[in-house]
Amino acid sequence: MNIYEQQQKNKRLTVILIIVFVLFFIIIGLGFDYFYLNLYPAYINENGDEVMRRFVPYGTIFCLILSLILVINAFSNGIKSIIKATGAIPPNPDDIKEKQFIDVVEEMSIAAGIPKPAAYIVPDSDLNAFATGFSPEKSYIFATRGLVDNLNREELQAVVAHEMSHIRFYDIRLLTVTTVLMNAIALISDMIWRSSRSRGYSSSSKSSSSKSKNSGGVIIFFIWIILLILAPIISRILAMAISRQREYLADAGAAELTRNPKALISALEKIRSAVEPTKMVKDGVANMCIADPRGSLIEEKTGFIADLFATHPPMEKRILALKLMAYEKQRDTGK
Which conformational region is residue 48 in: left (phi greater than 0), alpha (psi within -120 to 50 degrees), or beta? Predict the structure, then answer.
């Protein structure tokens, strides 16, 4: 699959994720409307007569509008929220290491054939980096202070090239939208779950006679609640799966850009040796980083459950894949 095909695939995935996100909120709204109509099917008018309510999907309309606002906010303020959350600042050109980072970002953007991304330094002693944005024209590369301090120039080039690959392939748009929407689903699900526990359940159990009349409604209620519980888990699993797939491709893209897979191997080994978590990078943006910010001990866990919730493939597998590339390059060129 060439770069253009990768870009188109990621653009399609982004659209699909947004559609699924909006549908999730519509289901939430329909649930509210359904339960409100069942709990309060009639009202007393001004003449004292009992009048059956007409179904007007106020909750659905509200949730639809809310989902669209959140999508728009993801595109307009998603980057700002990431910069604020990490405490990132522009690199200081008077600092030797940070100046080297600026130069490497410019060099790799020329090699990748894309506009120069905005560069930021995250004030953290751990070794990590990530890219974000919505297009090559509006992209950002972040590196921790520990990364720029501890990598040599070739290793730094390899890491920046890895992030450039995410930008070239439009991974940044996919991962940024995935991250923002995943966090929104988790937040909304938690709010509704807490609300349903304190209000919905007690309301639905006001009278045993109303339960017996609408046992189907009780079943639908529990299905709706289960959906709310599972939604953030499923969205996280999907986000992690997307991230794992993109990391292998970005590693290969970095090796292609630098023609030096050994440099990325060396960089990943240094990153792996830093077992402390990246404190300034929260779990919400873990899938964007070159290595799991929770620490290398998390990343090295294997097994079905560990693989399911891992933001990255095991570092050992990534290094092995790069060693195979280095071997093939040496075999083909004799160098």
Answer: left
Tens digit of each residue's pLDDT (9 = 90 or more) over 146-191: 999 999 999 999 999 999 999 998 888 888 777 777 777 777 777 7
Q: Which of 54-63, 77-86, 120-129, 221-230 has the highest mean pLDDT?
A: 120-129
Average pLDDT over residues 192-218: 54
DSSP letter at 313?
Answer: -
- The amino acid that residue 316 corresponds to is E
Query: Which long-range contacts (C-beta less than 8 Å, at least 24 apart) are formed by 194-202?
Result: 196/225, 196/228, 200/35
- Spatial CA neighbour of 134 closest among 104, 111, 182, 166: 166
Rounded to an integer, what distance in angstroms lies between the CA atom of residue 91 and that of residue 30?
48
- The whole-angstrom separation of Cα 4 and Cα 247 is 18
Q: Tell me whether residue 163 is one of the annotated catalytic residues.
A: yes
pLDDT in tens, 279-333: 887 766 777 889 888 765 555 555 556 566 676 788 888 899 888 888 776 776 7
Largest CA distance in the chain: 95
Which tokens belong to 152? 């040599």
Give the torsion through C-alpha atoms of 80, 84, 86, 87, to 10 deg.
130
Q: Is 248 helix (H, G, I), strand (E, B) or coil?
A: helix
Catalytic annotation, pick one of 98, 155, 163, 299:
163
| Residues near 285 by beta carbon (within 8 Å), at least 6 away in sequence | 82, 85, 86, 130, 132, 179, 293
